[in-house]
Every structure is written in C-alpha cells, then in structure tokens.
Amino acid sequence: MINGDLAELTLAQAARLIKARKLSPVELTNACLKQIERLQPTLNAFITVTADHATRQARAAAREIAKGHYRGPLHGIPVSLKDLYATKGIRTTAGSRILENYVPKRDATTTARLMQAGAVLMGKNNLHEWACGVTTDNPFFGTCQNPWQIGHIPGGSSGGSAAAVASRQCFASLGSDTGGSIRIPAHMCGIFGHKPTYGLVPRTGIFPESWSFDHSGPMTRTVEDSAIVLQAIAGHDPQDPSSIPGKVANFSRGLKLGIKGLRVGVPRRYFFTDIDAGVRTQVLTAIAALETLGAQLVEVDIPEAELAMDCTFVIAWAEAAHYHRKWVRERPGDYGPDLLDLLQASSLYLATDYLQAQQVRARVRAAFRRLFETIDILATPAGPTPATAHGTTEMILQGRPVSIMNKVAAFTAVANATGEPACSVPCGFTKGGLPVGLMLHGRAGDDATVLRAAHAYEQAHDWYQQTPPV
Amino acid sequence: MMPDNYAIKPSAVMALATWADMLMEQRRAGAMAKVLPEFRARIDRLNAVDTDTFEFDFLRPLQLDR
Known about the structure:
The structure holds two protein chains of two kinds.
Chain A: H1 11-19, H2 25-43, E1 46-49, H3 51-66, E2 78-82, H4 109-116, E3 120-125, E4 137-138, E5 142-143, H5 159-166, E6 172-177, H6 183-189, E7 192-195, E8 215-220, H7 223-233, E9 263-267, H8 277-292, E10 296-300, H9 305-330, H10 337-346, H11 351-371, E11 377-381, E12 394-397, E13 400-403, H12 404-407, H13 413-418, E14 422-429, E15 435-442, H14 447-459
Parallel strand pairs in A: 2-3, 2-6, 9-10, 9-11
Antiparallel strand pairs in A: 1-3, 4-5, 6-8, 7-8, 7-14, 11-15, 12-13, 14-15
Helix pairs in contact in A: 2-3, 5-6, 9-10, 9-11
Chain B: H1 10-19, H2 26-47
Helix pairs in contact in B: 1-2
C-alpha cells in the first residue's frame, strides 16, 4: 500500500467520499503531494509540480463543498496535465527547450473545463519532446521511468501522465494521442487510457503534433474514472475547427450494461504477427474472457490496417514538420538530435506524397466503416511489446530486429488514421512483470460502447487494482 | 519501386537540405542518408495502392461519416 488508503482509492470512490463530506479535498491533495515528493526523484513524471497552487485549489474546493456548492465528481480531485496543455500563469513547455520558459496567458479549453469542474491541478507531466515519440526520454527535462520496472520506458508520448497515474501521484491526467500516445503509455504502465473519436474533445490550447491525427483524452486507473473525466472535457468548442457540434453522450450511464451479445471482431492478421509472446498470450486470454462475459467473437480480416502506419508516418510527420518549420530552420540546436532528424527528413516529403497518403487514408477509413457494420468492437493488443529498456532502439520480434519507433505505434495508429475511438485496458502482465494492454476499438462517435466493453472486462478482473512496486 | 540497393548519397541530402532551406552539417547529412531510403520505401508502398478508382473528396479530407 502506498501512502495509506487514500492514494489507493479510485477517482470515483474518492468523489463519492468527497460528495458525502467524509473526505476533504485538502486531505486527498496532501496524500498525492506526498506521493509526488517521494516518487518524483525516481520516476520524474512531472516537469512542473504546482504544489502551492494545488493546495489553494483544494482549500477552495473544501470551502465550496462545505457551503453546499458541490460541482460534481471532479470537485476536489487531484489531476495532472501532460505539459502540452496550456495552463494560464503556469509554465507550459511541450517538453521542449524552445518553450522552456513559456507561460501561457490562457488555459486550453480542456484545462479550463477541468478547472471549472473543480479539479485540483497537481502539475504538468513529463512527455516525449514536443509529443513526437514513444519513449519519454526527454533530452531537456530528463528521462521518465516506468513505475513497474525502473530502467524501462513508460511509453509515450504521454509517459509522465501514465507514470503519475499508475503510481498514485494523481487520480487522472489528460494525455494526447497522435499515433498512440495515450494508449501506448497506458499499455506499458498498466492503466486505462482512452483516445476519443476525432473531434469529440477540443484541442484548443494544446500544442499540436499533427492537426489531422491529434486527439486529447483521459488517462486514469479505471474505465469509470475516464468516463467521468471524458464527460467533463468533451463537447463542442467553436475555437477548434475539428470539434464536433451537437450533444455529448452520457459516458457513465451505460457502463454497467455488460457486453452480452456485443460483436467483437478479432483480426488474426497483422495485429497478432510480429508481437511479443507474452503480450500475445495475455491479449488472447483477455479476448477469450470477453466471450465468457457474453460477447460474440467474430474473426475478421482487415488488410487495410497495414496501410495505416505508412499513412501516419507521411501525414502526421509532414504536418509536424510544417508546424515546426520555422524553428527547425532558425533554431535547430534547440531540438533533440533524434527529433531534429525526423522533422528535417519529414520536411522532404513531396506534396504529392502527402496527397497520396491522404487518399490511402481515406481507403483505410472506408474499410473500417464497412467493418463496423458487421462488428461493434475490434479487440487487439495495444502494442506489440511491453515496455522496453531505456535506450533500446530496436527490439527482436520473431527473431528479427525491428525499429521501436516504426513498430510500437503500429496497432494504435490505425485508430488515429480513422478517427475512431479506441482504448487500452490493462489485461495482465508478462512473465517479466510488465503490464499489457488490450485495445478495444469502436465505430466513430460510439465512445460509450468502447467504454462499456472495457468496463465489463476490467471489472471481471483485478488487474487495475495492482500496485506498482515503487 | 526502388531497387534493393537503393541508396542516397550525403551530397544529395545536402542538396535537398539546401532546397528545403535547412541547416545541415555534413555529419548529419550522412545520418539522414541512411534514414531516407526507409522514407522512400514508405512512399513506394503508398503509391502501390490503387487510389485512381477510389473516390476521394480532397476538399473535405477529414470528414468522418458517422
């Protein structure tokens, strides 16, 4: 047990206690601050810790609740933000040297919505430089460690968010996901992460990697907790051209309906070749459990999935190279060498390459739209391997060396290319004690079904209750 | 499609970098020359996909049919 019982509560459990006035937001915030103080030297999950700010917010929440002004399930709950989200008056670095002293004058829309809901901001999480990578080996703010095994990556780019949530330094964090940057660290750190439908959560005030692939979403220990956070941050924002207008579904209401009769597609090709044996075993066991819970398993073939990674590399990296073009030309020394190489090389894609990739992406999306006429959920591994050791650039799969950068996001990037919702829910551990995530991918706009399926699986197991050994 | 022995010389990378208005040292040009064939292979795979018979709305590339 870490730091007594409080840090072991889920967000929803803590919220119920706060609402009933059996738990003070100040007490809860202090418990998380103690965790941060203890673990920051080891895990380096934060770039900026906002302890004084959090204490003031917690006291204000306590006063409001005492007066009977309870705002809802995030009131008085300690949360963190990937340091890509603008925070008014609080440094926002994007994990970069270029923005190392940048203090925004406005909150991101999602930051403002969390604060309006009464959440308590504990700090800004470490991330891969500019959110452009999967290791969270940050050249300027230090390496972030995986709480399950020091010396291993937490995944990325939202690695600090995942490490902080997994090690009970906060109850939720917001990550961003361009090719898997919420789901990869969720998979590697044994937490739940949800990439919503493209446009469901506004991105105003979040530094972009790629406009047409970027998503904002919640990272928590449980599905129920993510549903609560998603409810607070989802909804139309006229400042974000990609934002979907219209009413937002209730993500918590249907969670407990179960998955009896749900059609779950299992693609044997692509997602189960070239993967770590331990990951394969855990994910196939989890898929069998979905059937036991009442889902109908359907074997599917979706060859277009293999094209998604190539589309991602061309479109997302060309868009990133465009966003960074001025700084790359004028301040190349202010980038880490690996990222600079990728941004410069991606500057050399031709306009015709970009357009061809967009056309292929449209084919991939059309194929997935057709697929989701026959199934409700696609079940796959969230990643081909568990967390790797820091500094590893290649991994051995099926006896062959494979580039981590090219392979780690191969499964998650599919849902970024299609814009459909997808999550990673913990489904066990490898023999080496590293977490494994089951990815559940649904049809566009149907985030509620993805969350319902994940909740049904999660509640039938105790993986989410496991505590990392730090 | 590119041949198996496809290679890009650092001098070609320097020329590309000049065209793209990027600062590039000779040493880094050598490193990038090793990366670019992978980029070329990616483009070749995408170009091999038949998109001529597929109707695509370039004016609304991101529209999600829901």
